[in-house]
Amino acid sequence: MLNVAPTKSNLLSLKRQLAFAEEGFDLLEQKRQILIQELMSRLGRARDAEHEVVNALGLAFAALREATLSMGSENLDRAVLGVRMDHQIVLAGQRLMGISLPCLTLKADEVGVHFGVGGTSANADLAMRRFVETLPALTELAELQTCILRLARELRKTQRRCNALSRIFLPEYRQTLAYIAAALEEREREGLAIMKMIRDRFARSAG
User: Which domains does the chain have, with CATH numbers?
Assistant: First the structure.
């Protein structure tokens, strides 16, 4: 319970503060629900993206093994040095409930034929194409994982604030308001009793 004097002014002030705190709690609870929905949505999408990445990388590494077997690792390493590709990721931001979430856009070079002639193998082109094909899923997964971490961190903060309000702040204010209201009511009854005694004395003295 708060340490305040049981006065009418304090009663009115605490009622206003309690109403403001309850409104804040409602807003925090709404934010918490939205964060949970957004987090769960991205968790599902991240699982799908992770599955897609695993499958795509499995195909890419399988093709790389075939290229290594057909060319030899040293020849493959030398051939790769001549490949020039420029893949870019553009980072933008979006705001959700005051949180900055990343939005990634992949700009990948088109895959042409870089191997398959001059002592190289078509398997090397296949491996390169398959690795490039993993980039969209990898980009999506990176975006989702970053969003999940930020949403989870904000959700923990919001949950702590909700808990502080619902378990400590609001109960203390309600308990204090009940105490002040009871004290004022008791004081009013005492005042009425004293007034009655005074009236009775005046009545007896007048008689």
Answer: 25-164 (1.10.287.3240)
Nearest CA-CA partner of 59 in 133, 139, 137, 135: 133
Q: What values do phi and psi take at 113, rounded to 5?
A: -95, 110
Maximum CA extent, the chain: 133
Q: pLDDT per position in the chain (207 positions), as tens? A: 788 888 889 899 999 999 999 999 999 999 999 999 999 999 999 999 999 999 999 999 998 898 888 888 887 777 777 677 778 889 998 898 889 999 999 998 777 666 555 556 677 888 888 999 999 999 999 999 999 999 999 999 999 999 999 999 999 999 999 999 998 888 888 877 788 787 777 777 765
How far does CA 46 lie from the centroid of its chain?
15
Buried b (16+ CB within 10 A) or exposed e, 39-56: beebeebbeebbebbeeb
What tokens were used for 174? Answer: 């309600």
pTM above 0.85, yes or no: no
CB atoms within 10 A of CB 36: 14
